[in-house]
Write a structure and sequence with these properties.
six-stranded parallel β-sheet; alpha/beta; single chain; UDP-Glc/GDP-Man_DH_C_sf; 43% helix; Rossmann fold; UDP-Glc/GDP-Man_DH_C; UDP-Glc/GDP-Man_DH_dimer; UDP-glucose 6-dehydrogenase; 3 domains; 17 helices; N-(1-d-carboxylethyl)-l-norvaline Dehydrogenase, domain 2; 440 residues; binds 1,4-dihydronicotinamide adenine dinucleotide; binds uridine-5'-diphosphate-glucuronic acid; UDP-glucose 6-dehydrogenase activity
């Protein structure tokens, strides 16, 4: 099938590439000249395992192409995926300007039937809004052309994006017309083998499903983080509690890890946007207010522990930081807990020596003018002369380090572990003072 994808961020690029991988003829559009030039050379602007190889493979056989030309993009695809950003507006609502611009451009350029699919995470009612914008543009041109609009929210996780798209838990389709549903059913057939993963519903329910999923996941994390604080006070171990409750299939093991707070481009913005939608509709989402407040406090937990150990004036101290990205396997630093921690440590007069396997360039860009932040060449060199090690992101490479080398390099054998990746007993046997989240 001929597919156009508007926006080549995470979601657009993964959607376009995976659809090309299963044999579709895909054209991806972006307004960012640098991104398109890079992609045309087979390079991807983000770090995402397996994606670059897949992009190159599909570009080389001509199934995946990139363009800056809106008219060419509209003309190409029978299906037009809108996968542009929906960042938070000042009031917490989703900023819809990019979605509206993309829809308007389709209305201005289309010559025959198109199925327009909202892939971006968008507030309930967006399918209707996109339909309205396209009608407006067709009316301005004085033409009548048949088209459908559907919602098809994306549930992929950064760092596992290709696998999530190729082997989805579910594919949600929200549409009110049969033609749209049939086209999407056909398009997703290669991803829907063994058992039916397609969940078809009306557009408004599909749009709400996406926010509900992220809000539920964020709620689980904040619940565990709040419980971790209580566990610390009671002398209980949140890791034991996690295993104890996760074994109940009604609860399950996933997304129950206490840590130094959730970050990323989606949970924070989507939790805010859903609250905003609720307020606009005269109702509240008290649980989500608490989820947000707990997460904001959780991002300060490591700094609190550091100050409790080293005192509130940290001048003259240096801290080694392992992990900067908001989670492993990505270079994304949006809302990353490391950012608040670095800012907090520098504000208390400390110096920071940081290392991340892939997020160094992004850190450099974000903290360009911070003389107190040094970017180390390796995890071990970050430790030289530091007063303590702080683990913020649970990259695999940090899980079983050479502890005797760490002890030799650090000024004090102290570790703050924001992701509970070490075993408290064995690390103390190695001679470390060890502070983690929700564990004695
Ligand atoms: N990042 C993620 O892991 C996931 C994101 N989402 C949702 O998908 C949407 C996109 O997210 P990301 O890919 O992270 O966004 P992003 O911000 O990384 O990329 C968006 C891209 O759209 C381009 N763009 C903006 N306006 C355009 C236009 N009129 N025509 C063509 N290109 C245009 C931008 O230049 C940019 O390259 C958001 O709504 C997000 O909430 C959903 C699931 C996962
Ligand atoms: O809408 C989106 O953009 C996506 O948002 C999340 O994906 P992502 O933000 O890539 O990352 P997650 O793996 O969900 O992690 C988010 C944050 O939660 C934290 N987390 C996760 C799990 C956990 O148990 N504890 C915990 O603190 C992570 O460290 C990270 O900071 C969802 O998991 C995806 O399903 C969704 O499609």
């Amino acid at each position: 099938m001929k597919i156009s994808v508007i926006g080549t961020g995470y979601v657009g690029l993964v959607t376009g590439t995976c659809l090309a991988e299963v044999g579709n003829d895909v054209l991806c559009l972006d307004v960012d000249v640098n991104k398109i030039n890079l992609l045309k050379q087979g390079e991807i602007p983000i770090y995402e395992p397996d994606l670059e190889d897949m992009v190159r493979r599909n570009v080389s056989v001509g199934r995946l192409r990139f363009t800056l030309d809106q008219a060419e993009c509209t003309d190409h695809g029978l299906v037009q995926f809108i996968a542009v950003g929906t960042p938070p507006d000042e009031d917490g609502s989703a900023d819809m300007q990019y979605v509206t611009t993309a829809a308007r451009a389709i209305g201005q350029n289309m010559q025959d039937y198109k199925l327009i699919v909202d892939k971006s995470t968008v507030p309930v009612g967006t399918v209707d809004r996109v339909r309205g914008v396209i009608y407006e543009e067709l009316a301005k041109r004085g033409v009548e052309i048949d088209f459908s609009v559907a919602s098809n929210p994306e549930f992929l996780k950064e760092g596992a994006a290709v696998d999530d798209f190729m082997r989805p838990d579910r594919i949600v389709i929200g549409a009110d017309d049969d033609k749209a549903i049939e086209l999407l059913r056909t398009l997703y057939t290669p991803f829907n083998r063994n058992h039916d993963r397609l969940v078809v519903m009306d557009a408004r329910s599909a749009e709400l499903t996406k926010y509900a999923a992220n809000a539920m996941l964020a709620t689980r994390i904040s619940f565990m983080n709040e419980l971790a604080l209580l566990a610390e006070k009671l002398g209980a171990d949140i890791e034991h509690v996690r295993r104890g409750i996760g074994s109940d299939p009604r609860i399950g093991y996933h997304f129950l890890y206490a840590g130094c707070g959730y970050g990323g481009s989606c949970f924070p913005k989507d939790v805010k946007a859903l609250q905003r939608t609720a307020r606009e509709n005269g109702t509240g989402l008290k649980i989500l207010e608490a989820v947000e407040a707990v997460n904001a406090r959780q991002k300060e937990v490591l700094l609190d522990k550091i100050r409790a150990r080293f005192g509130s004036d940290l001048s003259g101290k240096t801290f080694a930081l392992w992990g900067l990205a908001f989670k492993p396997n990505t270079d994304d630093m949006r809302e990353a807990p490391s950012r608040m921690l670095i800012t907090g440590l520098l504000a208390q007069g400390a110096a920071v020596s940081a290392y991340d396997p892939v997020a160094m360039d992004e850190t450099k860009r974000l903290f360009a003018s911070e003389p107190g932040l040094k970017l180390a060449n390796s995890s071990m060199s970050a430790l030289e002369g530091a007063d303590a090690l702080i683990v913020v992101t649970e990259w695999k490479m940090f899980r079983s380090p050479d502890f005797s080398e760490i002890r030799r390099k650090l000024r004090n054998a102290v570790i703050f572990d924001g992701r509970n990746i070490y075993d408290p007993d064995s690390i103390r046997t190695e001679g470390f003072e060890y502070f983690s989240i929700g564990r004695p």
